[in-house]
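Our example pasted here:


***
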Amino acid sequence: MARINLKTGKVIKPQEFSGGNPEHQLQKYAEEYLGEHFRCYYLKSFYQIPNGEIDTLAITEDGNPCIIEYKHKQEDRVLNQIVFYYDWLTQKPTKFEFERIVKENQITKSIDVDWSEIRLICVAKEYSKWDASLIKHLDTDIECYTYTYHENELDIYLDPLINQFKKQKNYSGEPVNKVVTLEDHRNRADKEGKEFLDELRESVFKMGDDIEEGYTPDYIKYFVKTTFLGIHVKRKWLVIQLRVNEKTFKDPKKLAKDISSRKWTTTREMKIDSMDKLNYAITLIKQAYEAQH
């Protein structure tokens, strides 16, 4: 993916990693920013298993196990490889081992492992026609990312060509066009998480009669002229993302993280895991709403 220098008009071409194995360089930079790229916590690198080695073993913010594989060059067996690792991770003895690793990690020791979903991520320079053909027939959901490297910059993004083949299925195995609902999002949360969501939704709608609510597979959105609030429902907490006027935005407790570097329309993010934080978040959301007028 080429970039344009708007001052000179020249194309900034992608570069190759320097300083050793390019694939290991990619892994190093990706692991350093797992939270920003994938909302995951790092556990292990080059984790040895029978007949294989997992590049990155991680756990999501929601507690789901995560396997990440990297490929610097196009390679036909990258999807087969990660499915093999998935099979290994679903074995009962392996689950005990994974939970031990999580509890021994200072950052993740308070996270309860949720085995209802295992997240599989591939990061590759490009994908082959064999990968595109294979993913059409896989029941296992694999997130396929592509990357580009420019000087001091690493971009990782979902590959639009191969991910178009991912499909949802009903119980009979037939593809369906699923309509996302509020209940789909509520069901991701436990009792406490549902209480946070219900309380927050009620408070948002009280801000104005012109607020509309919509649902995407990943988050609940609220919009007037544009989307000013996104709510990501987790098992025990909520993550909100706000589109605010940075010149007038006030956050005295400094709880809203600046995410403007992601180049999204939302520029602030906050985690809500208590009623005190929820009440504070409402004051921030109100600012985002008022910025729509």
Summary: Residues 100 and 109 are 9 Å apart (CA to CA). The first strand starts at residue 3 and ends at 4. Residues 275-290 form the longest helix (16 residues). The chain has nine helices and 14 strands.
